[in-house]
Amino acid sequence: MKDRIYAEPRAQVVGFRFDEQVASVFPDMIRRSVPGYGTIIDMIGVFAARYARPGTRLYDLGSSLGAATLAMGALLPHQDCELVAVDNSAAMIERAEALLRAAGLTQPLQQRCEDIRSTELSNASVAVLNFTLQFVPLADRDALMARIAEALVPGGILVLSEKIRFEDAAEDSLQQALHHAFKRNNGYSDLEISQKRTAIENVLIPETLATHRQRLQAAGFDSVHVWFRCFNFMSLLAVKA
Ligand SMILES: Nc1ncnc2c1ncn2[C@@H]1O[C@H](C[S@+](CC[C@H]([NH3+])C(=O)[O-])CC(=O)[O-])[C@@H](O)[C@H]1O
Ligand SMILES: O=C(O)C(=O)Cc1ccccc1
């Protein structure tokens, strides 16, 4: 279904929430809003195929409709790995359940309607935060990252995809303008772009690449690689030694 959530003028734009209305248009919304989303999902499958270890878990943290879980399951060479998809939006989890069932993945799969800040994490070879950390309160990000690093087996990976901000004001406004041009070209009006921007203002808090690198290093990731970037969106591969 087409995302028209912010198409009509609103007297008051309230904070963005992952409710039933958003879940019902989510595939269209994310594809038209996040440059490279399809490529990133496909490559998460490639990362899983390369880094998954037999007998371990693969966590999709903030799984929404399960796109990353599906991509991993489709390319996983091991049948004894468990896929764990976690999201605290009941609307997302409900729809993901049907989509994942229809996909007929062959590996064991757990879906959890839980907060990623408190969900159990252990014996992981792959963890994915695909545009999720940006919604976690700033004060909770370090502790979550430390818990993810702790849960990974040696050689395990985290794929961290985020909207980012730039220290330099001119650079930041150019990258934001390019992102808006991308959305315009995908059929969003200036009104839709501006109302959505207001809705996510205090909900999606982007950080700089430098801040992400520091947090990953402090959490115990030895090597961090930028493997994708387009405008103010990027994805990192972080490897635990
Ligand atoms: N504390 C939290 N605990 C659990 N879930 C959370 C939390 N905070 C936010 N979420 C969930 O994180 C997801 C973020 S969307 C991820 C896309 C997906 N990864 C994809 O690859 O398609 C990204 C976006 O919409 O920009 C939503 O489903 C929230 O409910
Ligand atoms: O739409 C935007 O401007 C974004 O930054 C991406 C996004 C995608 C889906 C939900 C919230 C934000």
TrEMBL record:
It catalyses: prephenate + S-adenosyl-L-methionine = carboxy-S-adenosyl-L-methionine + 3-phenylpyruvate + H2O. Its EC number is 2.1.3.-. Residues 60-156 form the Methyltransferase domain. It is an enzyme of class 2 (transferase). S-adenosyl-L-methionine binds at residues 37, 62-64, 87-88, 115-116, 130, 197. Coiled coil: none annotated. The keyword S-adenosyl-L-methionine applies. Pfam families: Methyltransf_25 (PF13649). The keyword RNA-binding does not apply. Keywords: S-adenosyl-L-methionine, Transferase. Catalyzes the conversion of S-adenosyl-L-methionine (SAM) to carboxy-S-adenosyl-L-methionine (Cx-SAM). Homodimer. Belongs to the class I-like SAM-binding methyltransferase superfamily. Cx-SAM synthase family. This is Carboxy-S-adenosyl-L-methionine synthase. It comes from Isoalcanivorax beigongshangi.
